[in-house]
Amino acid sequence: MSSDSDKETIEKKPEESKPAETKTPEKPAVAKPAEEKPAASKPAPAKEEPELPAFEKGIADKIIEKFGEKTTISFVKPDRVGIKVGRDDIHDVAEFARDTLNYDHVDSVAGVDYPTDKEIEVVYHLSSYTDPTLSRQVLELATRAQREEDPIPGNDATKLPSLRDIFYSVEFHEREVFEMLGVYFEGHPDNRRLLLPEDWADLPPLRKDFRNKGR
């Protein structure tokens, strides 16, 4: 006959052994790459000024040497030189271009209206038949006159000195600028209309405030 202690021994079940917990090994810390700083931007190389053609630059230099601040170079490029000059000095510069630089005639004369500036610009294009070194050259002389509202010659007319006594070839060109833009050339021997009818009573047709009637 079994004792009570033996029953307790039989009824107790052995404890189930739990498997040992396995720890996942920690990954070694990886150092983050240092952030690269943006490279400092290099300053853009300075643009080199284009070399001016020697012959044309020589022409411009002679004019500036003679007249100084009375003239301004507007451009120097192959076969072309542009000079801006005040109305009181345009006659002297044109005379210097003829007698010293050997430009012997004017190819054309153009006019530009600047109503905002209250000025009209007249541009002479000088050339030469007699000097072979100037056969391809054009010298542009530009000057401006005060733009007056009344284009009829008088005390308040838009005026510039004529170059007719220096270059015979400007005679008809200046007459055309006179009638088309209302610039009166003092000293011109024949300030008459060239293309418009003699009874024209409207504004000069190349002024920007001119309007065709009926439009």
In spatial order, strands of the major sheet run: 1-2-5-4-3
CATH architecture of the domain at 68-186: 2-Layer Sandwich
Query: What would you report as the Rg, rounded to the nearest angstrom?
Result: 45 Å
Which bin fits the share of residues in helices? 10-25%
List keywords for this structure.
single chain; 215 residues; alpha/beta; Beta Polymerase, domain 2; 5-stranded mixed β-sheet; two-stranded parallel ribbon; 7 strands; extended
In words, what does this structure look like?
Helix content is 20%, strand content 23%. The protein is of the alpha/beta class and 215 residues long. The strands form two sheets. Strands 1-2-5-4-3 form a five-stranded mixed sheet, with helices on one face. Helix 4 links the parallel strand 6 and strand 7. It is extended, with a radius of gyration of 45 Å. The N and C termini lie far apart (140 Å). The relative contact order is 0.11. The mean pLDDT is 84.
Brief synopsis:
By secondary structure, the chain is α/β, with parallel strands linked by helices. The protein has 4 helices and 7 strands; from the N terminus they run ααββαββββαβ.
Give me the secondary-structure topology.
Layout: H1 4-11, H2 54-67, E1 71-77, E2 80-85, H3 90-99, E3 105-114, E4 119-127, E5 138-146, E6 158-161, H4 171-181, E7 183-186
Parallel strand pairs: 2-5, 6-7
Antiparallel strand pairs: 1-2, 3-4, 4-5
